[in-house]
Design the sequence.
């Protein structure tokens, strides 16, 4: 490869290259500089010295993180909730999609789909308002309903950690199911109708048809979406876990996840060491998992792998 | 006959299931509206009700009496949404077009360079320090626009679309002597309206709903976007009220603790989500499409 050859390539591609430049520059500043900046996790950060000037301390920050009781809690919560989300989301959205497919009225189907889809357009801030309207201990609906059913005394939801194990997955399902059900529904619509006709002629009943034809057809999509979700099991939805509990410290035991911890350690506590160590740990684990799960998907069905 | 009757029963059961589900989806939204239209005294004494005991517009009247806070938040949100969406669609589509061209020499390298940022990130701390200490973007519009400007995933979505355009188009334009930039703007752009609409709407929604950048980088009240204003309000309504005190009526009421804080808070929320709930459902199909187009390899 001579210099003139390199120059010729560059000259020939200069306009297309120019089209990519804004994005290349943007990615360099916003993504690559912070990647190099993550060395701060191995330093004793001092504000006046900056990232480059602070002293190296090796794995000290990670040692503090591993020894603190927080790590177990945030990893447990992140993995636990994401596992619940994956399973509940899968079961609920496939069930809803199968039921949608059975509906004969197109107009009502569209209506139901729209109603279940609108939470997708709301931010978690707005969902937090809705949760507050239900959970406000003094005036909220939930306590009124429970009292009407004969429950004893109002529950102080924003100080009652255990109940959030149910509240968080419910809110997540409420916001996401419209979208994921539509994805599965689209896959069902794509099934060749001759399979159903053949089954009906052979005398199969409705349940058998669903179980023997629809579900097996959805199975590849279910597998792939689940594996891809497992790839992201270390990243929690910051909006959900930050907005809904409204920062109530008594709820940390059941609502604090890796992402909220990183945020709080940096912004509220100013603990750069802990925050950056947790952040880097999350990035590395996430990278390994995404690449790993993608390799599995590619082996299983290369058309659906991410890369 | 028996089969027909059975299937009609089954249909009824499924409809009942979906009607029940729809109620679960609508009640929280309705509850916000109902509280905002309730008399504050009723709320304090009897709690929230799905149907207000006394219909009352006071909360809205107070907000419109000194509307600067919400008008300003709307202004900020609209500026970041429109400027951000425009810039980001331009930037991502230009890049996507170059990457869609089979004869682009640096295609593989740039694809990998961009794709890698989806796999590995530096994390919050270095990103926060970059934005605040090195770029000095606290309390600027740029801090609200830049973080969402370059969604890599959409570049691959657009590239896939561009690849489906017939190659002969570009060839013949080249023979006619058109330059690459001209081909992109006068030929590719008009042909690709559906994908621009999809990505544009997805970005518009992302900007409209964003609050995390404000949480990290904004302290000035004048730069609060709508969603962040809502977040601050639900946690600390006093802060917002203090900001509204250029109106005498509000100041007086706040002093005697008579301000309808509960209903006002929910009225603010209604005013913030109202327009969006009217607009976005019309574009539902674009959102579903954006999510189902998956693969980024090539």
Sequence:
């Amino acid at each position: 490869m001579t210099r003139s050859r390199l120059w010729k390539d560059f000259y020939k591609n200069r306009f297309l290259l120019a089209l990519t430049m804004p994005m290349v520059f943007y990615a360099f500043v916003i993504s690559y500089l912070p990647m190099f900046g993550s060395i701060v996790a191995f330093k004793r950060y001092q504000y006046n010295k900056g990232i480059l000037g602070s002293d190296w301390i090796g794995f000290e920050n990670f040692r503090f993180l591993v020894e603190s009781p927080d790590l177990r809690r945030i990893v447990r919560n992140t993995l636990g909730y994401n596992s619940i989300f994956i399973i509940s989301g899968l079961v609920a959205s496939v069930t809803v999609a199968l039921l949608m497919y059975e509906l004969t009225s197109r107009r009502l189907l569209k209506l139901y789909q729209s109603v279940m889809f609108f939470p997708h357009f709301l931010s978690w801030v707005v969902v937090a308002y809705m949760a507050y309207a239900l959970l406000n201990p003094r005036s909220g609906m939930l306590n009124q309903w429970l009292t009407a059913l004969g429950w004893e005394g109002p529950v102080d939801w924003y100080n009652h950690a255990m109940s959030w194990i149910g509240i968080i997955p419910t809110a997540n399902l409420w916001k996401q199911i419209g979208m994921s059900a539509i994805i599965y529904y689209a896959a069902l619509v794509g099934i060749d109708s001759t399979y159903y006709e053949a089954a009906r002629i052979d005398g199969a009943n409705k349940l058998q048809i669903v179980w023997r034809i629809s579900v097996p057809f959805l199975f590849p999509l279910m597998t792939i979406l689940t594996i891809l979700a497992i790839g992201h099991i270390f990243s929690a939805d910051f909006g959900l876990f930050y907005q809904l509990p409204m920062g109530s410290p008594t709820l940390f035991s059941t609502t604090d996840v890796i992402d909220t911890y990183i945020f709080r350690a940096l912004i509220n506590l100013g603990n750069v060491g802990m925050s950056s160590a947790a952040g880097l740990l999350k990035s590395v684990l996430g990278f390994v998992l995404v690449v790993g799960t993608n390799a599995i998907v590619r082996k299983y069905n290369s058309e659906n792998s991410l890369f | 006959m028996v089969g027909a009757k059975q299937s009609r029963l089954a249909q009824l059961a499924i409809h009942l299931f979906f009607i029940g589900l729809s109620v679960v989806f609508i009640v929280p939204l309705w509850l916000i509206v109902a509280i905002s239209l309730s008399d504050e005294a009723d709320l304090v004494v009897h709690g929230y009700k799905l149907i207000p005991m006394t219909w009352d517009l006071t909360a809205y009247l107070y907000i419109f009496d000194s509307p600067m806070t919400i008008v300003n938040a709307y202004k900020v949100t609209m500026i970041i949404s429109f400027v951000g969406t425009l810039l980001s669609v331009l930037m991502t589509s230009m890049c996507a077009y170059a990457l869609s061209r089979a004869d682009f020499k640096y295609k593989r390298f740039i694809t990998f360079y961009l794709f890698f940022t989806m796999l590995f990130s530096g994390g919050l701390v270095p990103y926060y320090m970059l934005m605040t200490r090195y770029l000095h973007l606290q309390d600027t519009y740029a801090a609200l626009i830049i973080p969402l400007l370059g969604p890599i995933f959409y570049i691959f979505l657009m590239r896939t679309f561009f690849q489906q355009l017939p190659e002969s188009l570009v060839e013949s334009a080249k023979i006619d002597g058109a330059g690459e930039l001209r081909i992109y703007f006068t030929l590719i752009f008009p042909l690709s309206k559906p994908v621009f609409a999809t990505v544009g709407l997805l970005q518009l929604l992302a900007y409209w709903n964003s609050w995390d950048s404000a949480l990290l980088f904004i302290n000035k009240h004048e730069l609060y976007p709508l969603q962040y204003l809502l977040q601050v309000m639900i946690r600390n309504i006093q802060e917002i009220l203090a900001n509204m005190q250029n109106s005498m009526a509000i100041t007086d009421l706040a002093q005697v603790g008579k301000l309808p804080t509960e209903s006002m808070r929910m009225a603010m929320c209604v005013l913030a989500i109202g327009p969006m709930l009217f607009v976005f459902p019309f574009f539902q199909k674009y959102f579903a499409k954006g999510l189902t187009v998956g693969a980024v390899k090539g």
In short: Chain B touches chain A through 94 residues (CB under 8 Å). The CA atoms of residues 100 and 164 of chain B lie 9 Å apart. The radius of gyration of chain B is 25 Å. Residues 68-218 of chain B form a domain with the MetI-like fold fold (CATH 1.10.3720.10).
